[in-house]
Amino acid sequence: MSGLLSSIRDMILAHEDVDKSVELSEVYGAILWAVDKGIYDDPELEEILTARCTNVLPKISGHTPLKDCIHLISEPYLIGGHTRLMEQLSTMHREKPDLLITRQSDEKAVERTRGFFDKCTVIAADTPLKKIAEIVESLKSYSRIVLHIHPDDMISVIACKIVKSITGAKIFFVNHADHVFTYGSSVADVYFEISTFGRRRDMKKTITGCKSFLGIPLTSALVTKSHGLPGKNDRLNFFSAASPFKFKPVKHYDLRPAIGRVLSEFKHSTFWIVGASPLTNIWWWPLKLRYGSRFKILSSVPYESYLKLLDSADFYVDSYPTPGGTAFAEQLFKGRRCVGLRAPIQGYSPADNLKDGSVDDFMTSILHRQNGSEIIESVLAVNGYEAVKARYQACLYDGVMCANEMEAYVAWTGDIAVYEQAGKITTAIPPAVVSKLIDFDKRFLSILFFELSATQKIKIAVKLVLLKLKKQRGKENRSGNV
């Protein structure tokens, strides 16, 4: 463990103020979420902080829960698969469940999620102990709690551990971020798997509950389209969309050679990357300089424009080295031709069989391979709505644990150590997390800078200055409104 992480964890355990310890544990979790140091859970810390919180919180009498199920999410989003998965699962219950949101969230995102649940509550408390007490009060009436927490959400884990001790509620943990560190190993009665990568990563955790395969359900209805094989003189559109970090080259995993081959051999083609930053994602610059307008990078587009671009795509290419979960399979079900490189993070869908292990095979696939019906059938068996619903209901209501089916469909070729960093920290830590850490104790600034690579030192310094200016403007605006 690096000196920074060791120092933070020691202070969490040593601080006399329980609120401060829990607050710092979430900063610690956020850093481990961002930086792969080979640490993927910390059940011991969960146990220690739960015991400390239990000792200072008012005693809550136990009683038999009267309601069936509530889902708990740290923060819903308007975009991305995290919230979509929760919404899909909410429709699979025998009766409509309730929802608890534990962090302040975008109002539009909250309003969207309300339509999927019978009752929606947002936690209003402003300190860790008050939040824990409010969450416990909200959860104690339910016999089943389904967790969709952010990896750093220690507050929700502590609250759920307390609820379990007083009501005997069953906790079902949906491991959305199965490729990174996350709290929750000590609280879940059932730890749901959604991929092969997650199953293998979990072998490095200390999980106290049972494991059960869930899978990510597709939201698209199957559309069947026939496609002619392309020629090298055709005007083709290749399209890929994801968060910037999913495209960033790591070790020898790099999408750029494949893009270069496409643009070189299909001389009238265009390759679109949506979600990247053309200014700060500097790894794209050589391709942009070489191919100009035929290589298009967009940080974001309005949703309607995004759909138009997608409709014009001849090929959908999954992000790499980090894939888009079931986004690839979704495009397959929408009738698009799908190609890609087999990523080190893998096993979310049998659609991985449409991806190739080398750039040469990737090019051959574009020219000669069609979407096979047998692949669509296997995707339905793993990711079809009814298949996921059957596993989910069997586990929730009948106690049936389901084996992970993915490796029966797709042979494992992944790399669970793909993002692990042995030396200096080269991955970006969110500036808001760094700011919280420094606000907690200024001495962490020097420790952090010792751990960072030269590039990250510059980036963090710039972002901290911008964050400070933003906070200052906010204070001035509030003062002006008084």
UniProtKB/TrEMBL annotation:
Keyword set, alphabetical order: Transferase
GO MF assignments: transferase activity
Name the record gives this protein: Group 1 glycosyl transferase
Species for this entry: Pseudomonas antarctica
